[in-house]
Request: fold
Amino acid sequence: MDIQLKRGLLEICVLAAIKYEESYGYKIIKDIKPYVSMSESTLYPILKRLEEAGSLNVRSAEYNGRLRKYYCITAAGRERLEQFAQEWNEILSIYNYVTREGD
Reply:
């Protein structure tokens, strides 16, 4: 798969994982696992890019004596998810064209 396409899809998956409630890295990986395989070394750069883009906010809180970062989607992140949903029909159309049988 094209690296840029996969990168964009993984970012959408991360936003979807925090769409309804804030979460932390390990839980995001666990929540996404049934749909796509993602390692911590893949997740954390994605979280950083999404934070820099204004798609999520980060807060730190103590958990069992250690600081844990919690990620929460922003209005810009929700807008990005909505935009992806609208573009999905075009993606499906392209897929159907590419995989069509001879006419």
